[in-house]
TrEMBL record:
Record keyword Iron-sulfur present: yes
GN (gene name): queE
Keywords: 4Fe-4S, Iron, Iron-sulfur, Lyase, Magnesium, Metal-binding, Queuosine biosynthesis, S-adenosyl-L-methionine
Organism: Amycolatopsis marina
HAMAP family to which the protein is assigned, alphabetical: QueE
Catalytic activity: 6-carboxy-5,6,7,8-tetrahydropterin + H(+) = 7-carboxy-7-carbaguanine + NH4(+)
Name of the protein in question: 7-carboxy-7-deazaguanine synthase
Residue numbers binding substrate: F23, Q24, G25, R38, T89
Residue positions binding [4Fe-4S] cluster: C42, C46
EC top class named in words: lyase
Length: 240
C-alpha cells in the first residue's frame, strides 16, 4: 500500500478526479455544458452514497483514489478548455476550505468559468471567500434514509448560514414518497427555498421509476423535480 499523500494546505487540493466536458446532471443547471472537479474525502457515509470512491475504504483503495493537484495544476487544466459551468463536488468539498477559497477566487480572476457551483451536504459553513466567488451552492441535506443520525446530517446554524448567503438551492435525495414529509419539516423549520427533489439511484431504470412516482406529489407541493441526467445517459459510468 502506498503511503498517504500529503498536501500543502496553502496551495494543494486532494482530488479524486477531474473530468469534462460533460453535462451537469442535477438541479437547476441540468443539461448545461460543464466541467467537474471531484474533491476527495467525506465526513459523512450515507448508505446510498453515489461517490463512495471518495471515502469508503471497504470498497476502494483510497490511496489509489486520490491525487494532489496544486491550484496552478487545476487552473492549467481549465485554461485548456474554459468552462461555461464548473461544478466542484465530492465527497464534501468544504472539508478543504482554505485552498478551495483560493482556487475559486483565482478562477474568477482569470475568467476560466462563467459560473461556479459547489455541491455540499450543508453540514459545513463556507468561508466568506468561497461564498463571494461562487455562483451557487447546491445544498443536499441528508434525510433519515441516509442511515445517519439527525445531529450528524442536520446542522441548523450551517443551514441558516447557507440560506442567508442568498446563493443556496436545496436539493433533496428521495427514495420514497414519505420522504417528502421530512423535507417539508426541514423547509418549514429552516426556511429552505427553492426546493429541488431528486430521485436516488445509480441506474436509469431506478431513476425513471422514482421520478414517475414523485412527479405528482412534488407538483402538489409546488417544488421542483430534478432528474439525474448523467445516469439516464451513461448509467453509473465514472467521469461522465
Amino acid at each position: 500500500m502506498k503511503p498517504p499523500l500529503v498536501s500543502d494546505v496553502d496551495r494543494d487540493l486532494v482530488v479524486n478526479e477531474t473530468f469534462g466536458p460533460t453535462f451537469q446532471g442535477e438541479g437547476p443547471s441540468t443539461g448545461r455544458y460543464a466541467h467537474f472537479i471531484r474533491l476527495f474525502g467525506c465526513h459523512l457515509s450515507c448508505d446510498w452514497s453515489d461517490s463512495p470512491e471518495t471515502h469508503d475504504p471497504n470498497r476502494y483503495d483510497l490511496n489509489a483514489e486520490q491525487q494532489i493537484l496544486s491550484i496552478e495544476d487545476i487552473l492549467s487544466w481549465l485554461a485548456a478548455g474554459p468552462a461555461d459551468l464548473l461544478v466542484i463536488t465530492g465527497g464534501e468539498p468544504l472539508l478543504q476550505p482554505h485552498v478551495l477559497g483560493r482556487l475559486v477566487c483565482a478562477i474568477r480572476q482569470r475568467a476560466l468559468a462563467a459560473d461556479i457551483e459547489i455541491e455540499t451536504s450543508g453540514t459545513i459553513a463556507p468561508t466568506d471567500m468561497i461564498t463571494s466567488a461562487v455562483t451557487r451552492f447546491n445544498v443536499s441535506p441528508k434525510l433519515a434514509h441516509s442511515g445517519l443520525r439527525r445531529h450528524q446530517r442536520i446542522r441548523p446554524a450551517v443551514l441558516r448560514d447557507l440560506a442567508d448567503s442568498g446563493k443556496a438551492i436545496w436539493k433533496f435525495v428521495v427514495q420514497e414518497i414519505d420522504d417528502l414529509d421530512e423535507i417539508q419539516e426541514l423547509v418549514g423549520t429552516y426556511g429552505l427555498h427553492p426546493v429541488w427533489v431528486m430521485p436516488e439511484g445509480t441506474d436509469s431504470a431506478t431513476v425513471l421509476a422514482r421520478m414517475r412516482m414523485l412527479a405528482d406529489p412534488v407538483l402538489a407541493r409546488r417544488w421542483h423535480l430534478s432528474t439525474r441526467l448523467h445516469t439516464l445517459l451513461w448509467e453509473n459510468d465514472r467521469g461522465r
